[in-house]
# Entry
Amino acid sequence: MFNDRFLKACRREEVDYTPVWLMRQAGRYMPEYMEIRNKSDFLTMCKTPEIACEVTLQPVNRLGVDAAILFADILLPLDGMGINLAFAKNEGPVISNPVRTAKDVENIRVIDAEEATPYVMEAIKLLRKELEGRVPLIGFSGAPFTIASYIIEGGGSKEYKNCKTMMFRAPEVWHSLMEKISEVLLRYLKAQIKAGAQAVQMFDSWVGALAPVDYATYVLPYSKYVLDGLKDEGVPVIHFANNASSMLELVAEAGGDVIGLDWRINLDVAWKRIGYDRAVQGNLDPFTLFGTPKVIEEKVKRILAMAENRPGHIFNLGHGINKETPVENVIALVEAVHKYSRR
# Structure
């Protein structure tokens, strides 16, 4: 029997218990994942549909979550755009030709997603067959700002100096870059939906580095362009902006059927600010999963109490699972959500 609680919650329909899935639920904390990872590099795993399919299914089989999320990476569209991407061991993504000038932006290609990332679409098609009658499949992308920050900085950053320098010294270059990225991401998510994704999430992982006024000026129009462009696709869209408690109203204004919340704000306060006409997702601190089963249970109950059984709550972490998280604690979390949210 198909478990559609996640999709119902996205649409703010009544469910018999709160659905739960976890960001980065397919990953390094699972021994099954590491068996495969020890034989293949990360990009090979992402670009081999059969491997991506297998890794996506691992947490569904092991944890009892209510949705699967495609195993991929937010930076996969970069290759087709002309951005040279590699993953350095223990250092994350490295871009050897960062975009810093108007000429660099001019050289970026606005790609056709099916041609540039065919392996992503093939993995989605495989997964729909494997998940038939089980749980829904979530596709995803990065958000325009987060993708831009990687492209400009040449990898991860703590201060986003190059990114903000472009914003404030060369705004016309910034806007040209964001226009191209936004179009790529809209095409990418549409292609995932066409391939079979039953919901999609847009991750704005680093947008918390910005002041609200700068988010409104330099980011919101581009996130809105992507999210507005998905309105007629017929699937729920989740908008997750990390570390953005200071500007939740702006994040909600940008769009999304579901607003993802990090752990830096109480869920009840956040939902009231966003408005009850929108579903919410979240928002347990990922490091709670290093606590005892009793602590995990107490934290789960607290978040569920703040949601008040209101239709439209999807339980999740406030960010991705840490790679050292004990699997048994993740299972305990899923079981606690199901147990204590039963209507």
Notes: The beta strands are 68-69, 85-88, 92-95, 137-142, 199-204, 237-241, 258-260, 279-281, 313-314. The two ends are 19 Å apart (CA to CA). The domain at 5-340 is CATH 3.20.20.210 (TIM Barrel).
